[in-house]
Write a structure and sequence with these properties.
Order of helices and strands: HHHHHHHHHHHHHHH
Oligomer: single chain
Strand content: under 5%
Number of domains: 2
Largest sheet: none
């Protein structure tokens, strides 16, 4: 097992290195000069432009800038935003709670609906119910988030008026940041339950939009895993002994079928964090996704570099942990982990 962990860690190093190169180079290929955007009309003065570029360190060769970026990142310094003049790490921490809360809500939505749908489809294999559920999940998987988010807003916010169009909570409520999770912090505010209701209504549509694709994947994975387990000898033995159907499904079958499902859910959580960019932009959710999009528009190099590096590190770490958990939980893999 230790050898396996060591090899997996070694494999992470070139991946992280590749992320730093991509994060550093790609934004510089996008048309637009951050110095000109900062100076505005004053950028017409060559002396002012040259001074600002030198102060920001953007007059140095790219290789030197990249070396400085890597050196500082290894020391925990992701740089300072060109726009806000605040540390990138501070801005990231301030917004990460919103993204994490939304991601957890989306994953909860996917699990609470996806697993029961997959179980029902497996039990009703090749029936109209099975075809309908799997067909619906395929449609959900195929819908682009930006299109699905707009449809949800038009139906539930504009037409029915059931949910807010954007934001984490109504502007009527003032909530102090305690945990970074609005659903929790709102309960400790002066308005208490009313603020919580506002926060809960605000998170519904973004969570549904972000969680639709994970829901479809979870449903199809659950169906496939359940069908494999239901065909095992011990399930047939349990049926022959007259074991109640519910006990067979939920005690014997589903528990064993959850191993690959948990693995997929862990991997999907990483993709949910990265997929927050579209959802947060559509719903004006003040998380890291919307923050990075705004930074790209402003050519804020330190924010883009640091933000992408941290997100990529998180996703890689989640995938690494999922690999270890799966290797530990799956008896068929233990023989190769000595």
């Amino acid at each position: 097992m230790l050898t396996y962990i060591f090899k997996r860690i070694l494999n992470l190093i070139p991946t992280l290195f590749g992320v730093t190169v991509v994060a550093f180079i790609l934004i510089r290929l996008v048309p637009g000069d951050p110095v000109m955007l900062l100076l505005g009309e004053r950028g017409a003065d060559p002396a002012v432009y040259a001074e600002m570029k030198q102060n920001l360190g953007l007059d140095q060769p790219l290789l030197i800038q990249y070396k400085k970026f890597i050196t500082n990142a290894l020391q925990g310094d992701l740089g300072t935003s060109l726009i806000s003049k605040r540390k990138v790490s501070e801005e990231f921490i301030g917004r990460f709670g919103a993204t994490l809360e939304l991601g957890m809500a989306a994953l909860l939505f996917a699990v609470l609906l996806g697993i029961p749908i997959g179980v029902i489809a497996a039990l009703k294999r090749n029936s109209l119910i099975d075809y309908f559920l799997m067909g619906t999940s395929l449609v959900g998987y195929s819908m682009p988030i930006f299109w699905w988010g707009i449809i949800l807003i038009l139906i539930f916010s504009v037409t029915l008026g059931l949910t807010p169009v954007s934001g984490r909570i109504s502007v009527m409520f003032e909530v102090d940041r305690i945990t970074g999770f609005m659903l929790i912090d709102s309960l400790f505010s002066e308005d208490g339950i009313d603020a919580f209701h506002s926060a809960a209504k605000s998170i519904i549509l973004p969570a549904v939009a972000m969680g639709t694709i994970p829901l479809a994947v979870t449903a199809r994975m659950t169906r496939s895993s359940m069908l494999e387990v239901l065909g095992q000898d011990y399930i047939r033995t349990a049926k022959a002994k007259g074991t109640p159907v519910l006990k067979i499904v939920f005690i014997h079958a589903l528990r064993n079928a959850l191993i690959p499902i948990i693995t997929v859910l862990g991997l999907m959580f990483g993709s949910i964090i990265t997929g927050a960019i579209l959802t947060e932009t559509i719903f004006s959710w003040p998380g890291i996704g919307k923050w990075i999009v705004a930074s790209i528009n402003a050519r804020d190099y330190p924010v883009i570099q640091g933000g992408i590096l941290v997100i990529a590190t998180m996703v890689i770490t989640i995938n690494f942990i999922v690999d270890l958990v799966y290797a530990w939980a799956n008896p068929r893999m233990r023989g190769g982990l000595k």
